[in-house]
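Inputs:
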Amino acid sequence: MPTSTRFVVAVHILTGLAVSDGKPMRSEDLAYSANTGAVVIRGLLSRLNDAGLTRSQLGAGGGALLAKPAEKIRLLDVYEAVEDTELFSTHRTPPCENCAVGGNILEAMQPVLTRARMALEAELAKTTVADIAADVARLGKFSIPLVW
Amino acid sequence: MPTSTRFVVAVHILTGLAVSDGKPMRSEDLAYSANTGAVVIRGLLSRLNDAGLTRSQLGAGGGALLAKPAEKIRLLDVYEAVEDTELFSTHRTPPCENCAVGGNILEAMQPVLTRARMALEAELAKTTVADIAADVARLGKFSIPLVW
DNA sequence: TTGTGTGTCATCATCACTATTACACACTCA
DNA sequence: TGAGTGTGTAATAGTGATGATGACACACAA
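Outputs:
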């Protein structure tokens, strides 16, 4: 089972905010770009707000803004902000306690699973939203800030 | 979203076969240890058979066996045999093609996501079923082969 | 004061996953 | 050779997470 779409969409949102560079973006505009509903975006923004990655400006002319420079937002920060579940699921019902294997398999596997998760997270920590934004600008042949 | 429970349960199965060391194990016995149904186990064994990790012996006294030494079975092999989905899900509906961000975000993110996946897989490649079996034996204070 | 946009709740449909029943087939053992 | 055992697979159902959607109170800007 994969991660939810939340991670990729959240990076999409933050990249949008990064390229617009200080101009508030409405959830509706972000929803249009991500091809989803505004409420979905607002739900993600709520998590990103809690994580201190974005902030919102209410009222007319308002919208979402980055709470800190895009260079300071690692993809790992985004991942942790929006993903709820453990990377590896274990048995739905715990294995047989009395069995030689069942009673110890989870403890035996735990170190490997932890190492694998940390390896993945270390990779996500190497890239920032600014890196993604720069790559999007390169691919789209425009420069930051972009006027929408 | 996490991986399915299939990965951990499949490792459980293979560890069981490894510690029983050549004695065929019935799907029902494996199901008891994993605390699930025999059909679930048979479904996993079917995938593991296809991947060349196990083989089955039909008829009375039959059951599942490792198709090669436990030292030669990496957790990565198991992972690939039983996990269907991509590690990272992208937008449910593709993002807006015409948008500066929407049209390029997936291409921009793809390298990072690939690196993260490969880092995870590299960790899973370092551990074998024999390693897990040895650890289970250590934790359970028994020696391999185990008589059930 | 009016209008805009956020934040959140509730509801719904969809999908993957696991559990379970059923049964045909292949093989072993007596 | 016949009986019994265990596998392999199909069909079905329940469950939980996810994403989509409508509604509405609240805060803020103009």
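Remarks. Chain A touches chain B through 63 residues (CB under 8 Å). The first strand of chain A starts at residue 54 and ends at 57.
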